[in-house]
Fold these 3 entries.
Entry 1:
Amino acid sequence: MGRGTLNKFGAAVHQNYLCMKMPGPAGVITVCGDQDAERRIDYGHSPHSDAKMIHAVGNHEANEAKAPAGVRPARAEAEGGTHAVAVDPAHLEPVFQIGDSLSLEAEAVIIKVLQDNMDMFAWSPAY
């Protein structure tokens, strides 16, 4: 469904929960997707599961052991190294970490997008 159709139905979609709610003649109509089926599709049965993207991370097996309480799980790391890029040439801060494996053209495009959207990033914690 496109945004226009969702607006016409007055539907509210929550993609993380695969759930949609909309008003109906006898109350709220709730439509839920199958999260297990979605996970199977996303994690291993997708026709593009081997495709590499610009921001590809290492294809490592997940550790099945449960992490002890209070221990954060490991973060995804970029393939190859990264380097810091100051988005505003007039200031050394803030900086973004950009992958070393990107071409100069791809890096320039990413930096341009970051510069155009500087107001979208939280540079300090909100209280």
Entry 2:
Amino acid sequence: MESNAPPAKRPRTDDGPNAAELPEVITRSEIWHTDGTVVLQAQRTQFRVHWGLLTMHSSVFKDIYTLPQPNVAGVAVEGCPVVEVHDDSGDWKHLLEVLYDGTILTEETLQFSLVAALIRLGRKYDFIKLLKAAVNRLTHDYPSTLALIDARQRADFSLNITPYPGIHFDVLSMAREHSILSVLPVAYYWMMRAYPQTSWFDGMKRPDGTFCPLGAG
């Protein structure tokens, strides 16, 4: 369960310089290890985790750990330094869950949101093993050779990513953004086969009601 950490303060900017300060509500994630040594903050969500685990898997966090930490009052939470990351908090929740439970990557199928999070954060922060595992899932389901494409269309083929209406749009956007070029031809092909032509440029709704456009490019 999530709980609210003590709110940080931020000044109001809409009612002039004399307006009272409003608290910025910070949510404490369920990923909160009481023996953790660093607090990551993504958007308004904090995660208490272990420096050792981050530095073991990410060269970027290994470099951050070696930097001298400024002694600024108010930036520690329960004695832990706070490192603010400018990413989606849901992405960090996915990645940290995998870091603390590697068996997740052995599951037959994973949600695309998890795979996408590992690609985004894996590339940005150099989580090499997680990035490779996620890309392998993507290229398995969106192969680049005719033989593998034929195998993909057999009834006994096991998908690595749970399908949903609109997934080809999301795969195309992800692949183009992160230059995973090998999946593009078959992803475009399956998009044109699976979805009506009117949706090719307009996109379509996911099962949760959010919209997945193809995007520019």
Entry 3:
Amino acid sequence: GFAATLLRNSYDVRRVDITPLEQRRVTFDTHALVQDLEAHGFAKEQAETIVSALITLSNVSLDTVYKDMVTQAQQEITLQQIMAHLDSIRKDMVILEKSEFA
């Protein structure tokens, strides 16, 4: 018969604290940008609308980028979990080989 260890689901339970998406924003002096746009011929309402659009686009772009990113700590933890799982598989293979040749 085959000898196999129980599959452990604990390898993906570890909690890692990362900065929430809402807190990851590009910050810049919006007032200075509005003033600069006004100085270059834009009306105040136009300048404010442009700055508002830039903020929205920046945040949407960052949200898209951050969704696919992991921290170095998360990556290291995942690597350790995978390596531990591979070690378990290797042990199962050794046990299986020994039981076949016994």
